[in-house]
């Protein structure tokens, strides 16, 4: 008769555990991950997104944040979403200027000490391990360009390292690495949310409004107007008329808006992170993407928090039926 490799009698049937026992041993709740993207002042929309989800009974188990997404996501993970909303709504142009400790020497235009003190006031000595849900922020290591996932240690340091915009804020030293804004490598960290264990990932793209997204201009050339004819010396009236026509021709060209260096720098950074985000999302797409209509919100218009939060809430409420359907399908197949 003989025995098999496990010493069992081959003639005897092998008893398998009941199906119900297998289901109970492997079953676990569906884990929802939220990937909150970068976008400076547009990031207040994350507050509205979270509020709309929570009002619908949808609470994320995992949050991966980049830059301002790390600020709002970290505060929510610490139970401080109301506090960050109150801070955002209190901002005026004058108060914003008061929070910026401008410096002429250093690696950034803004030291960031005043913002650090505000974060420490509300978050204190909390570490990422202290949080009730899984949270991580993405940052970029200077010199190497490594994408660094901040999954442990001080919550305040992780948030600061994730929003340290190059040339604007001082880089943050953490664990022997010098870190700056994570938007340089992963503006919408879907990959990080999945790595933390999310079964379903909803991302929030702050630059996803079609009105603010660049495209390809396939044909373009110089738009120089032909030089207006030189005035003919046929009398003072003719010369005056010719000069008037020349002036009108020169001023008929579209005016080029004068841009400040800081504005050009931030616009260039925004273009770069939008293109990086498109590439990353194509390689690791989320299950759902929320794209608030934020084209009219400037990157540094932090004083427009009420409007921005409302736009985030509206975009989420519009997508709620689809979100609930996707979660139901995944739960049934989980």
Automatic annotation (TrEMBL):
Top-level taxonomy: Bacteria, Pseudomonadati, Pseudomonadota, Alphaproteobacteria, Hyphomicrobiales
PANTHER family: NEUROPATHY TARGET ESTERASE/SWISS CHEESE D.MELANOGASTER (PTHR14226), NTE FAMILY PROTEIN RSSA (PTHR14226:SF76)
Residue ranges occupied by any PNPLA domain in the UniProt entry: 34-194
Family matches, as PROSITE patterns: PNPLA
Name of the protein in question: NTE family protein rssA
Biological processes per GO annotation: lipid catabolic process
The keyword Lipid metabolism is annotated on this UniProt entry: yes
Motif segment (DGA/G): 181-183
GO molecular function, one term: hydrolase activity
Membrane-crossing residue ranges in chain numbering: none
InterPro entries xref list: Acyl_Trfase/lysoPLipase, NTE, PNPLA_dom
Assigned keywords, A-Z: Hydrolase, Lipid degradation, Lipid metabolism
Motif (GXSXG): 65-69
Keyword Transferase: no
Signal peptide coordinates: none
Catalytic machinery residues: 67, 181
């Amino acid at each position: 008769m003989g025995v098999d490799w496990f010493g069992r009698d081959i003639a005897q049937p092998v008893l398998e555990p009941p199906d119900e026992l297998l289901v109970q041993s492997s079953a676990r709740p569906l884990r929802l991950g939220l990937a909150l993207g970068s976008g400076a002042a547009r990031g207040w929309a994350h507050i509205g997104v979270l509020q709309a989800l929570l009002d619908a009974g949808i609470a994320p188990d995992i949050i991966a944040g980049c830059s301002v997404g790390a600020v709002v996501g970290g505060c929510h993970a610490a139970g401080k979403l109301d506090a960050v909303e109150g801070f955002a709504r209190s901002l005026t142009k004058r108060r914003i200027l008061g929070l910026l400790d401008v410096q002429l020497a250093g690696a950034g235009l803004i030291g960031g000490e005043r913002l650090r003190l505000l974060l420490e006031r509300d978050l204190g000595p909390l570490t990422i391990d202290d949080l009730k849900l899984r949270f991580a922020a993405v940052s970029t290591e200077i010199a190497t360009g490594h994408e660094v996932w901040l999954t442990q240690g001080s919550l305040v340091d992780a948030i600061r390292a994730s929003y340290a915009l190059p040339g604007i804020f001082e880089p943050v030293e953490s664990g022997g690495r010098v870190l700056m804004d994570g938007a340089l490598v992963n503006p919408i960290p879907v990959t990080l949310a999945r790595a933390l264990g999310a079964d379903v990932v909803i991302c929030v793209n702050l630059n996803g409004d079609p009105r603010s997204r660049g495209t390809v201009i396939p044909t373009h050339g110089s738009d120089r107007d032909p030089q207006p004819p030189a005035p003919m010396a046929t009398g003072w009236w003719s010369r005056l008329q010719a000069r008037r026509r020349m002036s009108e021709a020169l001023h008929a060209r579209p005016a080029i808006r004068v841009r400040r260096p800081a504005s050009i720098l931030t616009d260039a950074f925004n273009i770069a992170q939008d293109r990086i985000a498109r590439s990353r999302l194509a390689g690791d797409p989320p299950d759902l993407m929320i794209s608030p209509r934020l084209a009219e919100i400037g990157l540094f218009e932090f004083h427009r928090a009420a409007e921005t939060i409302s736009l985030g809430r509206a975009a989420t409420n519009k997508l709620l039926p689809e979100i609930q359907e996707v979660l139901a399908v995944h739960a049934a197949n989980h």
